[in-house]
């Protein structure tokens, strides 16, 4: 099969990006594939082209509803009508219709939670699929940076005899995460493609402050005088709101984005950012996955992320157009303690495990602990998964090990800040890769000239944007402040 001709016919492209042709070629041979491709390298094409070449549906398991909807919308914009998203947004009638005609769709997007519903699971196993895709596959791993217990069960749902090939996609993955992906998906000697995680056009800067207030002051002064678009990552919803409000007061078109906002508000903010109506987004890590904005010029971490995987995923949202972008990592003494708290906040503690088992022993449904607020949704999901498979003592030990591992991950981010070794080299090594050569304007430790990388902000342009945008902001975004 001439893949180049198929690429031109279905997508109008003259050439594949690195890795795409090898990945698709192995899928067409019926092999399982693990593909690690950085953000912006065309992961979706790796299942979309096979979807046109096969005459059977492609099932894509996607972890986030916003990501799923974004992918569905993109396909529809390309003219594809045989696409559906099975998620909680569907009404009962829409779900029944979709399940009845499931075999007729070319692309079926589904959340892991929906995949596990008995009715859906049975219907999936009835139809003949051409390919199964685990998107953002790092979520499968218990050591992944977005651990989702329901993702661990994908392998249990998929047929083990005469099943189609499985494609696991992610932007980054350590060796440990890769082993988990292959194991939990029950992959059969998969072909593995790993693109370098190094993004040469993203320049790495670290800045150390004595007081936390100085970080905020620096952010405000820097943002109001330099050009975006940009994303500021912070660890709390309150701080996201506070920083965005300060930027608005400086006539910067900014908005806070976090899971505490209504879905409609988040969608509006996202669309405004993509359309260029907003210069900056101030966000928790709830923002970014599935956001396809080519020209993000700056990413600022107001405080250190919990893992190097988080860091690489988040800075990877900059410079997708190939032009220069800058990633700023800000640090103040003690930030690592807050990062450890955030990293382990949703891990079940010993008291949670004991309470869960007491409820079960009393003949009560453990869901009551979720309803009455004793357990968070994440803690409940994690315990529901592991306590169905292991003894309480083993689960306690597992959670302790996971806490230690997460602490170790934070310490690796701290080394990125404290060591004088090339920042890029440290990050690339974390993913088991090596830098071939040193580049110009690499990072703070190697020497960097920011005047050539960060443009001055066009103040008049920012003000014009602000006039129309602020009218909507008052109604939609500041009503709860």
UniProtKB/TrEMBL annotation:
Keyword tags: ATP-binding, Helicase, Hydrolase, Nucleotide-binding
One MF annotation (Gene Ontology) recorded for this entry: helicase activity
Residue ranges annotated for the Helicase C-terminal domain, each copy included: 215-364
Domain Helicase ATP-binding: 24-191
InterPro entries in UniProt: DEAD/DEAH_box_helicase_dom, DNA_helicase_ATP-dep_RecQ, Helicase_ATP-bd, Helicase_C-like, P-loop_NTPase
Transmembrane segments: none
Gene3D superfamilies assigned: P-loop containing nucleotide triphosphate hydrolases
PANTHER family documented for this protein: ATP-DEPENDENT DNA HELICASE RECS-RELATED, DNA HELICASE RECQ FAMILY MEMBER
Designated name of the protein: ATP-dependent DNA helicase RecQ
């Amino acid at each position: 099969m001439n893949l180049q001709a198929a690429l031109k016919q279905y997508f109008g492209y003259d050439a594949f990006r690195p890795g795409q042709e090898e990945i698709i070629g192995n899928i067409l041979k019926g092999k399982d594939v693990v593909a690690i491709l950085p953000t912006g390298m065309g992961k979706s094409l790796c299942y979309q082209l096979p979807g046109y070449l096969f005459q059977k549906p492609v099932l894509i398991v996607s972890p986030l509803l916003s990501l799923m909807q974004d992918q569905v919308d993109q396909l529809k914009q390309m003219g594809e009508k045989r696409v559906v998203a099975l998620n909680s947004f569907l009404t009962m009638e829409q779900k029944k219709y979709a399940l009845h005609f499931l075999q007729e769709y070319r692309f079926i997007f589904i959340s892991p939670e929906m995949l596990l519903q008995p009715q859906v699971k049975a219907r999936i196993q009835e139809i003949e699929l051409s390919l199964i895709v685990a998107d953002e596959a790092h979520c499968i791993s218990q050591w992944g940076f977005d651990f989702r217990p329901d993702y661990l069960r994908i392998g249990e749902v998929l047929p083990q005899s005469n099943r189609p090939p499985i494609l696991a996609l992610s932007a980054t993955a350590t060796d440990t995460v890769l082993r988990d992906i292959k194991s939990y998906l029950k992959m059969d000697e998969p072909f593995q493609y790993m693109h370098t995680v190094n993004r040469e056009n993203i320049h790495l800067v670290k800045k150390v402050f004595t007081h936390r207030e100085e970080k905020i002051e620096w952010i405000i002064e820097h943002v109001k005088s330099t050009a975006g678009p940009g994303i500021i990552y912070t660890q709390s919803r309150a701080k996201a709101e506070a920083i965005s409000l300060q930027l608005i007061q400086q006539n910067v078109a900014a908005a806070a984005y976090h899971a505490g906002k209504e879905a409609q508000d988040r969608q509006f903010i996202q669309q405004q950012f993509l359309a260029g109506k907003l210069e900056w987004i101030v966000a928790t890590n709830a923002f970014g996955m599935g956001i396809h904005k080519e020209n993000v010029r700056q990413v600022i971490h107001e405080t250190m992320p919990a893992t190097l995987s988080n860091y690489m995923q988040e800075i990877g949202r900059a410079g997708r157009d190939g032009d220069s972008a800058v990633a700023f990592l800000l640090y103040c003494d003690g930030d690592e303690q807050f990062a450890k708290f955030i990293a382990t906040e949703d891990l079940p503690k010993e008291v949670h495990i004991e309470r869960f088992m007491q409820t079960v022993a009393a003949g009560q449904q453990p869901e009551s602990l979720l309803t009455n607020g004793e357990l968070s949704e994440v803690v409940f999901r994690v315990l529901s998964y592991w306590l169905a498979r292991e003894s309480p003592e083993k689960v306690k030990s597992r959670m302790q090990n996971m806490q230690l591992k997460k602490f170790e991950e934070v310490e690796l981010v701290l080394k990125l800040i404290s060591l004088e070794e090339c920042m890029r080299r440290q990050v690339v090594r974390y993913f088991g890769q090596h830098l071939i050569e040193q580049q110009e304007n690499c990072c703070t430790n190697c020497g960097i000239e920011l005047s050539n990388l960060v443009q001055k902000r066009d103040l008049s342009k920012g003000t014009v944007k602000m006039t129309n945008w602020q009218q909507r902001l008052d109604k939609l975004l500041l009503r709860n402040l």
